[in-house]
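Quick one, T. Sequence first:
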Amino acid sequence: MASNGEQNQTSEAGRHQDVGHKSLLQSDALYQYILETSVYPREHEAMKELRELTAKHPWNIMTTSADEGQFLNMLLKLINAKNTMEIGVYTGYSLLATALALPEDGKILAMDINKENYELGLPVIKKAGVDHKITFKEGPALPVLDELVKDEKNHGNYDFIFVDADKDNYLNYHKRLIDLVKVGGVIGYDNTLWNGSVVAPADAPMRKYVRYYRDFVLELNKALAVDPRIEICMLPVGDGITLCRRIS
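Structure tokens:
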């Protein structure tokens, strides 16, 4: 008969085997430790308010995790980003993390097909006093990117670009974004470990949306790994984020 400790370990493993867990850490307690020790004590009041607001939304699984929000905020400060882009906004948690990190005259071109979700978080963003940095465009991002790429003045114009949108278009985004980000600039692709499904057996239990997009994520990861125009770093933060620094 299994001990209580063994039963707890089995139960915890079972939760993670059902691929779709937001954190990639195998221990919920360890993830909670990170949040309570590093993230929550230093989380901006507006970030906390928006995180709690988003948690009540039926699609809250789409939001950027708190630890990843902290990571993005730090990264943007480290690279002194000023002109940025975000594809996939949802309620704006990662967008707010970006806006808070940018200087007063910083700019974010934000795109999402659902303005209603963005407007849910907009009052919090306004309360934080950073909404003037954001230009929001509703609709598919590809037509907007195509227009930007047509004008060579936009080439190399962005310091940082964050993509957290339709995984089946990630490669299409990359083909355009590589021209828009500056040499030395960074593109961040979210969900590149896709709930751990990238290493899961084909017959592993997965949520339907995880299984559907898994091949697109795998295809992206293979393409980024051999792209000579970038240096990459894949990190197990949130649901996995791959940073691509343009070198040519």
